[in-house]
Amino acid sequence: MIAGVVATLNATDRSVGQVLKEIAGLPHVEVGEVADPRRIPLTVEAPLPRSLEETTNAIQRCDGVAFVDVVFVHFEGEPAEHPASAPQGTDSQ
Question: What's the DSSP call for residue 86?
């Protein structure tokens, strides 16, 4: 599963570079192109939904991060396993 995430930074004694370095060091996280140093675009590639939750919580715990927004989630593999999918046997017409 791949998620697009935005980390919003708060005022802190740490530089944006220090916060980015900490976030980039987390497993499954890739830092995107930073246009606004207060809002950091991230990609999280998690093998399981629990991994995604653990990773977003780890980002939230980084000193200098005010909050984390999950912008989108792409489920790979079998969509029937995900709660957002329609129950089997339903007609979508």
Answer: P
**Architecture of the domain whose range is 2-76:** 2-Layer Sandwich (3.30)
How far is Cα 78 from Cα 6, in angstroms, rounded to an integer? 26
pTM of the model: 0.77
Burial, 10: exposed, middle or buried (Cβ in 10 Å; 0-12, 13-18, 19+)?
exposed
Number of C-beta neighbours around residue 48 at 10 A: 9
pLDDT digits (tens, 9 = 90+) for 67-88: 999 999 998 765 544 455 444 5
Spatial distance between the Cα atoms of 80 and 70, rounded to a whole number of angstroms: 22
Contacts of 72 (CB under 8 A, 6+ apart): 3, 4
Length of the chain: 93
Domain limits, the chain:
2-76
